[in-house]
């Protein structure tokens, strides 16, 4: 308890810490937001809650890491991970997701849970259980007496994440496929009636999600470290963010992603870093409680 | 597994026959070992097995084990525990009940040793282990468990002594030293933390940061921000390979200046290979290093041990020999010494002889406490200096001066 108070005191004593925490949180949250957006897509369009979301992220990370081992510049790894994961995602869709699309919630949950285990073990077999990371070798920018540090690699990562998010937004708004995806999300049967090939839309959505995750993973390996069994942490955050923001609400997902990043950093600062992840889960709980109470009110008024 | 086993027993049978042909006088003493040859501990399990085998061969070449005027050679029955504790315990039962093994060698890791120790204890089978460092192994009152390695609370404790030394040298009181500790929430790392805090308390030092790292999602920027605010003189981190990788990366990124930084598992995380100059001047604890000045009549100097192992096993040609291998060899050597002093193959006599061990080996001195851990060998601290691991503490064994303050 004493430690919490003194930690809290530090925030007031050194206001600059707040700026640092917010910046760190935003840089981390931007990467969470990407995977969360992919989850919102498959959840909203296909009604599949993908428990292997984080493992797609780690898969992309390993693609990028492996390329750098082959001597390819790490930045090339981001588009390559995007494309390769799209292909892998498409194969997974054909083999695994399409046959169970019409089944109930538990079938898809179990199937994607199995997929998560298989992916993590495959990565473990292929690349070993060591922690890996790619060092871009860029400098770090320092502000305010060196107290605020912004590694150029992280900055670059956030910019790439932003560019990718923007690309996806524009694609969804203006391309034919994007329109078809949105139509299918609104009403799949109506979309089919109007001549949209929803099977193609589903396959595309699933691959797009895998691709977004792959690119996010490639960025993560450059600014953080990855390990075959880290997928679950990214999955948990993606679920928290999507639950908090709601489906089909891209600005909401981005805001929730950044918000969770910042809140986690504050939580880690005040309660200790061991509780960093607990913050995300507690937040999920609060959001769910709030949503439920809201729904009950709506239902009561309808009665 | 079954196929493996029959191959192993064939090999064992063959090795039993061979010395009989060469030097008819030597009989064999059978040791049992359940060891991780597959699964998550396989890499280190194989290092351990190589260490056992290397030592057995060396002892054979040097004329075997002399017990009461007769000559013996060691011979080990290995089983694969698949890196699973319950399997390890079952295999220990099998070694003792079916194979009638009277003496055991340890498995790899504290966890596996914890699984086997109750079994060997139940049957009163003396076990010398070389790979279980957790001190929770040595507070259960085990009478038949002996470990040649230093327990885990000592891993970073010597860094505290070093910090005190430096404080005195720069004219300050050791109690003015501020310590920051960040360890993962697992038994091994918590042991390390306990050791550090105990030692810090002895010097009257204050722990300004004392935090647990999460098991996954490697991010410790919140701790490092606090480090920048509170300016400790010593920062100690233990979180296995990923903790080491994250710490080195983020300490560099956030430009954290602390005069002394100690991190476990530097070698395993290959921080010099991954982050280059960012890893410089970081202190890393190790059980053993080939540059130490220990020696014994069988293996010669530590350096000699190092070069002979490299010559025998191609796998270590281009990398440092892991200390896991060296300590496994040391365990065999302790058995040899105990058998010779016991002058009998009776397991109780051997157990008492092991308990009375006071031996100088290439791996360090071995002398067991009442609880069975080795109290004669200090942990060694190496500092990464220009990408090389150089021994800097304790000062009796140091080959290089410590670079202090860091950065």
Quick structural overview:
Chain A has one domain (2-302): ABC transporter involved in vitamin B12 uptake, BtuC, CATH 1.10.3470. Chain A is mainly alpha-helical. Chain A is 79% helix and 3% strand.
What does the secondary structure layout of this molecule look like, with pairings?
The complex is a heterodimer of chains A (303) and B (407).
Chain A: H1 2-13, H2 15-46, H3 53-69, H4 74-97, H5 105-127, E1 140-143, E2 148-151, H6 152-174, H7 176-186, H8 188-193, H9 198-223, H10 231-245, H11 250-271, H12 276-302
Antiparallel strand pairs in A: 1-2
Chain B: H1 2-22, E1 27-35, H2 42-61, E2 65-67, E3 70-80, H3 85-97, E4 103-105, H4 110-122, E5 127-129, E6 145-147, H5 157-169, E7 178-184, H6 187-202, E8 206-213, H7 221-230, E9 234-238, H8 240-253, E10 260-263, H9 266-269, H10 271-275, E11 283-286, E12 295-296, E13 300-301, H11 302-312, H12 323-342, H13 347-355, E14 358-361, E15 364-367, E16 380-385, E17 388-393
Parallel strand pairs in B: 1-3, 1-4, 4-5, 5-6, 7-8, 7-9, 9-10
Antiparallel strand pairs in B: 2-3, 11-16, 12-13, 14-15, 16-17
Helix pairs in contact in B: 2-12, 3-4, 5-6, 12-13
Explain how this protein is built.
The complex is a heterodimer of chains A (about 300) and B (about 400). With about 300 residues, chain A is an all-alpha fold. In chain A, a hairpin with a 4-residue loop joins strand 1 and strand 2. In chain A, helix 2 packs parallel to helix 6. The longest helix of chain A is centred in the N-terminal third of the chain and has 32 residues. The termini of chain A are far apart. The mean pLDDT of chain A is about 85. Chain B has two domains: about 230 residues, Response regulator (Rossmann fold), CATH 3.40.50.2300; about 150 residues, Response regulator (Rossmann fold, 3-Layer(aba) Sandwich). A six-stranded mixed sheet of chain B has the order 2-3-1-4-5-6, with helices on both faces. In chain B, strands 8-7-9-10 form a four-stranded parallel sheet, sandwiched between helices. In chain B, strand 2 and strand 3 form a beta hairpin. The chains are: A mainly alpha (about 300), B alpha/beta (about 400). At the A-B interface, helix 1, helix 2 and helix 11 of A face strand 8, helix 7 and helix 8 of B.
């Amino acid at each position: 308890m004493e430690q919490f108070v003194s930690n809290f005191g530090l925030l007031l004593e050194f206001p600059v810490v707040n700026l640092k925490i917010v910046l760190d949180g935003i840089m981390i949250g931007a990467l969470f937001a990407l995977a969360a957006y992919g989850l919102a897509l498959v959840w909203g369009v296909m009604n599949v809650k993908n428990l292997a979301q984080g493992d797609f992220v780690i898969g992309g990370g390993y693609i990028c890491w492996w390329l750098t081992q082959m001597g390819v510049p790490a930045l090339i790894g981001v588009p390559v991970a995007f494309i390769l994961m799209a292909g892998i995602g498409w194969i997974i869709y054909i083999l695994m997701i399409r046959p169970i699309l019409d089944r109930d919630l538990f079938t898809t949950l179990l199937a994607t849970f199995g997929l998560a285990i298989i992916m993590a073990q495959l990565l473990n077999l292929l690349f070993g259980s060591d922690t890996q990371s790619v060092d871009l070798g860029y400098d770090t920018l320092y502000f305010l007496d060196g107290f605020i540090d912004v590694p150029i690699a992280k900055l670059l990562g956030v910019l790439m994440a932003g560019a990718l998010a923007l690309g996806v937004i524009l694609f969804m708004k203006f391309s034919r496929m994007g329109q078809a995806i949105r139509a299918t999300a609104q009403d799949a049967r109506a979309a089919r009636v109007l001549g949209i090939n929803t099977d193609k839309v589903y396959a595309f959505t699933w691959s797009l999600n895998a691709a977004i995750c792959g690119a996010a993973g490639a960025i993560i390996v450059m600014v953080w470290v990855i390990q075959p069994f880290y997928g679950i942490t990214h999955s948990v955050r993606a679920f928290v963010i999507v639950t908090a923001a709601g489906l089909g609400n891209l600005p909401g997902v981005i805001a929730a992603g950044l918000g969770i990043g910042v809140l986690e950093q504050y939580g880690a600062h005040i309660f200790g870093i061991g509780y960093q992840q607990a913050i995300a889960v507690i937040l999920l709980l609060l959001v769910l409680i709030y949503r439920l109470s809201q729904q009950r009110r709506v239902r009561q008024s309808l009665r | 597994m079954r196929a493996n086993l029959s191959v192993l027993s064939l090999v064992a049978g063959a090795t039993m026959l061979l010395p009989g042909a060469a030097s008819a006088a030597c009989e064999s003493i059978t040791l049992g070992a359940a060891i991780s040859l597959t699964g998550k501990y396989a890499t280190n399990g194989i290092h351990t097995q190589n260490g056992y085998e290397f030592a057995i061969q060396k002892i054979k070449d040097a004329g075997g084990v002399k017990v009461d005027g007769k000559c013996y050679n060691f011979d080990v029955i290995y089983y694969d525990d698949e890196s699973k504790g319950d399997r390890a315990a079952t295999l220990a039962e099998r070694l003792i009940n079916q194979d009638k093994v009277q003496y055991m060698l340890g498995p790899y890791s504290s966890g596996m040793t914890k699984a086997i120790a109750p079994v060997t204890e139940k049957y009163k089978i003396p076990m010398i282990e070389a790979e279980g460092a957790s001190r929770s192994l040595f507070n259960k009152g085990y009478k038949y468990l002996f470990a040649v390695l230093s327990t885990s609370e000592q891993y970073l404790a010597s860094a505290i002594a070093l910090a005190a030394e430096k404080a005195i040298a720069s004219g300050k009181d050791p109690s003015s030293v501020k310590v920051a500790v960040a360890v993962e929430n697992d038994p091994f790392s918590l042991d390390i933390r306990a050791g550090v805090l105990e030692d810090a308390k002895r010097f009257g030092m204050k722990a300004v940061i004392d935090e647990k790292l999460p098991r996954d999602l490697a991010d410790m920027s919140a701790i490092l921000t606090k480090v920048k605010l509170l300016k400790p003189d010593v920062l100690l981190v233990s979180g296995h390979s990923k903790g080491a990788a994250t710490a080195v990366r983020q300490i560099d990124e956030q430009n954290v200046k602390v005069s002394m930084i100690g991190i476990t598992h530097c070698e395993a995380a290959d921080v010099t290979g991954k982050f280059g100059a960012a890893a410089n001047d970081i202190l890393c604890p190790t059980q053993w290093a080939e540059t130490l000045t220990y020696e014994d009549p069988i293996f010669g100097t530590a350096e000699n041990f190092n070069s002979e192992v490299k010559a025998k096993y191609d796998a270590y040609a281009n990398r440092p020999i892991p200390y896991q291998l060296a300590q496994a060899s040391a365990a065999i050597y302790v058995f040899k010494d105990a058998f010779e002093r016991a002058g009998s193959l009776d397991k109780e006599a051997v157990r008492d002889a092991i308990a009375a061990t006071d031996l100088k080996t290439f791996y360090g001195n071995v002398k067991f406490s009442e609880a069975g851990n080795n109290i004669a060998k200090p942990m060694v601290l190496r500092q990464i200096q220009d990408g090389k691991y150089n021994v800097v503490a304790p000062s009796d064994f140091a080959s290089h001066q410590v670079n202090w303050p860091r950065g």
